[in-house]
Design brief:
By secondary structure, the protein is mainly α. It has a single domain, classed as Farnesyl Diphosphate Synthase (Orthogonal Bundle). It is built from twelve helices and no strands. Helix 2 packs parallel to helix 12 (about 280-305), helix 4 packs antiparallel against helix 5 (about 130-145) and helix 5 packs antiparallel against helix 6 (about 155-180). It is globular and about 50 Å long. It starts with a helix and ends with a helix. The mean pLDDT is about 95.
């Protein structure tokens, strides 16, 4: 294989992997691990890194499957040039000619197989009960786009993303690191779940017309852009309200520092209400929602470390 071909494949893979979005899974991993450290006083670096690698591989596999399906249904091909943003339109590897359909599918198969291999190592040598958490995560990732479930096409994509990147990952890494199953840890994941679902929600706006043509019936398509902004605001409210539940369960008011990003949420909702039909200007709300997730995640890590 020629060097130019290798460069194309690597560039396409890296674009498909999109490491900048790994923050979505890194935050709940760090929150869960921090909670474990606060309870046990120990931190097993090897198993944390292996778990992190497994989650990243699942993310890449999900990206690949979603890229394949969205291209085949026409969703990615139907996005108008003026609506293409860094936050929408998939990873653009196929439409830009960086990878072929077959190459994308090989990447999906390879990354999911590697993730499952890492998962089995963790199950056999560290924590057997994490099998069911990992299996559920893999199935949700696959059927996010793949028939017959096709969560993203049937109005369940927002829930799937919120549940996986909130309660499920937070509980999974806590279980691996501490060896304990604690229902309260899933509640800790709720704010993250609502916030990451909101990232997906606002990122669906640039793809609105293309999703309609491709019969991708997410809830922004079902409700329409204007009504969708009401849900965008509601998801922020649910995220911040869930901190009250977490604080009550842990009997520690420190969790309310999660409210520090509320002013940023107000700003993003204000922009979205005004610019939901103006994609270039809506980008500020897209970027703002991601920033809110990152800031809130950081203060949750601090709160986790201060929780006993």
């Amino acid at each position: 294989m020629e060097i130019a071909e290798l460069k194309r494949l690597w560039g396409g893979f890296w674009q498909l992997a999109d490491p900048k979005i790994w923050i979505a899974s890194t935050v709940p991993m760090l929150v869960g691990a921090s909670l474990s450290y606060s309870v046990t006083g120990g931190f097993d670096f090897l198993w944390f890194i292996l778990s992190l690698m497994g989650i990243y591989l699942i993310e890449i596999g999900k990206n690949a499957i979603n890229e394949y399906i969205d291209y085949k249904t026409g969703v990615d091909r139907n996005i108008a040039p003026e609506n293409r943003t860094p936050f929408s339109g998939g990873k653009k590897t196929i439409v830009q000619g960086k990878l072929t359909l077959r190459e994308v599918m090989y990447i999906a198969l390879g990354t999911f197989a590697s993730a499952c291999g890492i998962g089995l190592l963790i199950v056999v040598f560290k924590e057997p009960r994490v099998l069911w958490v990992g299996l559920l995560g893999v199935l949700i990732s696959i059927f996010y786009s793949v028939p017959p479930l096709k969560f993203a096409y049937r109005g369940l994509g927002e829930f799937a993303v919120g549940f996986t990147f909130g309660p499920l990952i937070t509980l999974g890494i806590y279980l691996v690191m501490s060896g304990r199953f604690d229902f309260k840890v899933m509640i800790v994941g709720l704010p993250l779940g609502f916030l990451i679902a909101n990232v997906l929600w606002i990122n669906q706006y640039p793809d609105y017309e293309a999703d309609m043509k491709g019969n991708k019936k997410n809830w922004v398509v079902r409700l329409g852009k204007e009504k969708g902004i009401l849900v965008y605001g509601l998801l922020f409210i649910l995220a911040y309200a869930s901190f009250i539940l977490v604080a009550a369960l842990y009997r520690n008011i420190i969790w309310l520092i999660g409210w520090i990003s509320i002013p940023l949420a107000f700003r993003s909702v204000k922009i979205a209400r005004k610019e939901f039909n103006n994609i270039p200007k809506l980008i500020k709300a897209n970027a703002g929602t991601i920033g809110i997730y990152q800031i809130t995640g950081l203060v949750m890590i601090i709160a986790s470390l201060l929780t006993k």
